Amino acid sequence: MIGRRAFTLGLASLLGGCATHHQSGPATGLPSTSKGYRPPPDSDEAGLWLAVDKVEQAQKRSPSRIRDQAANALVQDIICRLAGDRCPELRPYLVRVPEFNATCSPNGMVSVWSGLLLRCKDESQLAGVLGHEIAHYLRRHSLQRMRDKREWDDMMAFMQFTLQGPLAKTMWDISGDVRMASISMFSRDHERESDEMGLVMMADAGYDPFACAETWRQLIDEDKAGDVKHDFNFFLSTHPATKERIETLQQLAEQRGRPKTSPPNRLDQAIRHLRRGFMEDEINQGRFKRTEKLLSRLAADGNDPAGALYYRGELYRRRNKDGDEASALGFYHESCEAADPPAEAFRGVGLIRWRRGEAELAREYFRRYLDRAPQAGDSDMIRKYLSGA
Amino acid sequence: MNRLISLAIILLIASCTPYRLIPAGKVEFADQGTVETPIDWNWRPFDIVHTWTLDGPNLQEMIFHMGVKDGKTLMEVLDVEAGFHPLLVWFGKVPDEVSFRFHKRMTEHEIVDLFTASMSKIAGSKVVSTQLAPATLGGKPGFRFEYAFTGKDQVRRKGFGVGAVFDEKLYLIHYVGTEIYYYDRNQADAERIIQSFTFKEKDKGKG
To answer: Which CATH superfamily is domain A275-386 in?
Structure first.
């Protein structure tokens, strides 16, 4: 029914030459589920759950799964703070993928990507994203979208057989465009609803609601640095325009106000030992501008400046354009001077100095590297440099 | 996306490439070098490298990078910038992507870092080097390293490689196999092959 209503509305809008602008607010659709909900076994929803259950089985065994106890415990705890008595239904899986993303499947599987963990400045930002995903779950958005798409496909199949005459192709093409616009619009409504619900959930749990808009600003800065466009397409965009999302989230945060007490912030403690591996994943992507922006922000955030500076040096060294070696050397040096520097930062200085023929200075840094990492796998090679070979 | 499609097409074409038997004995790599193999192998070209296997590339493989030039990637498929439109390059509007390239002034660490970063792209999962030590290849000073990764197929693999920069070009031979059974079964053969490597006569004396 939703599909047909949307079709009529979409066709009318299209023929009238205007686009509908949706305000933030609850989307039409299914009622939310209650605690412990399981779909009826003979329903399409049960089929959807079954398909996702298989994905979850693969996720459990995946080599990219992060099994770190502290990080998993934190994400589980945030989910419980946000979801309340629905917490037992939600099962987090942290996965090592260097992109900003999280998902919550209809069966309660929550995937949190390492790129998201790295990019979150604090626990409130992570809670904002998880709240958004949990809202998708509670409002059964996947099921709604599946049914909407199926109804549209039925409608198109029906029209294929019934449309006849000279205008048939034109009508068919228009219907196809309206179908795309309707499905995308429906998806955007879900995103708006999840943005709003997620913000309410995280604010209710004591987190800072202003973190939600801030997360988006950070992402836009990163994408702008990499010349990634955020063009909004009425027919194809499944998410609202980013500017609109930021404005809405900012307004909602202002309505809620700052939390009365300091929000919990255990993120740094929980992922500190993983963060440098996540940074390495980022530079392995080979995306210079975006990664540069990200690492410079991370260095400024103060969570692990020494790590961020070292990987910034690595990023420049690997690119190796004019002046990059000098930039790399500068970042390695800055890293060495910061608190808790990676041993590799000293090696980085040593290698560049060695290549430049500054053997004594190089050896000094090689010695400092070995002092910090005497059992390093490359210690034989470093000792060769030290012996003057 | 275009890069992924290109990679998929190349892999598809490569998967259709017939193998050729490499009998035990002396094997020449054009004008670059020779090795002696104690056993037969199955050879196929992949991109710009030579690959040998006994039971299939997913089980064990020897890969020969023979004479990578300054400024080049380890495989052509890894050179993302080569696909940029000249006009985009002219106007400085190229995608935010850089290729990891060999440079003749690289230290041993940097070459191994280039190798693991490049292999990570090919394997689709993180490749980690575990050991790095001085070694020789064809009598030239070089390095030896070990590495490991778990592929998308969730199979754990390990490998080792020996390389050297000679005449401003990188020569690198590595052997990789499944951690269970296949790596161990032919590691000694791979070691003997690498030890037997000699640069071509015309290059002697340049290093």
So the answer is: Tetratricopeptide repeat domain (1.25.40.10)
